[in-house]
Structure formats: C-alpha cells, structure tokens
Amino acid sequence: MTKIGKALAVSMGALAGGAAGFYLLEAYKINTKEKRLALLLEKKYELEKQDETL
C-alpha cells in the first residue's frame, strides 16, 4: 500500500472513530438530561400535592 493510501485509511479511521465517539457522547448527554428532567418533574408533583393538602 502506498503512503497516500495508508494516510487515507488512517484518516478515514480517525473520522469514523470521532463520529462514533461524538454520537455516544450525545446519546449519553440526552439520557442524563431525560433522567434529570424526570426527577425534577417528580419533585414538582410532590410539591404540588403538598400545596393542595395545605
């Protein structure tokens, strides 16, 4: 394989790896935001129930 071919293969591998890493990071961030939102909504409902009983 020529030097240009090797460089191209390495570049494509780095690009694919970077894209996969970016996708996984974004998926992780979305999941953590969804969990945090669910927790905040649960707390909100609990506070609303407490206000109704007062």
User: Strand percentage, roughly?
Assistant: under 5%
What are the segments in which pLDDT stays under 50 over at least 5 consecutive residues?
Answer: none
What is the total tally of β strands?
A: 0
For the CA atoms, what is the radius of gyration? 23 Å
The chain-level structural class is mainly alpha
The whole-number mean of residue pLDDT values reads 95
Overview of this protein structure:
- This protein is mainly alpha-helical and 54 residues long.
- It has a domain of 31 residues.
- It is rod-shaped, with a radius of gyration of 23 Å.
- It starts with a helix and ends with a helix.
Features:
54 residues, 94% helix
Topology overview:
Blueprint: H1 3-53
